[in-house]
# Entry
Amino acid sequence: MQTALFTLGLVLFLLGLLTGFAIPALKNPRMALSSHLEALLNGIFLVVLGLLWPHVSLSPFWGLTAVVLIVYAAYANWLATLLAAAWGAGRTFAPIAAGDHEGSKTQERIVGFMLLSLSVAIVIGIGIVIAGL
# Structure
């Protein structure tokens, strides 16, 4: 699990670096900056979780559940904010980053679903990890 967390964290960090190049080309540069920073910070978090993993005592089921939830949240955070930046969406759940931009109802629903689901996933995943410490 440790190697998987290291790999997934570094891949997400790389995606964040690449997202930084796209900031000026996207419809909402402020949201694109959010996507860039989310990927960088969540990539670092996954690497740190990998370093912490030997100290976590969970059954294989709960360990895998926690990692899947946390990795989903990390990648969904990057993707949701990137889609919002490209579409000019995200006004409902990220009004500061969205600014005056507003996507179609479908785009707003997709971004909103991702932001809500990743929020629940990260809270549950971290809760499981804390219980395993």
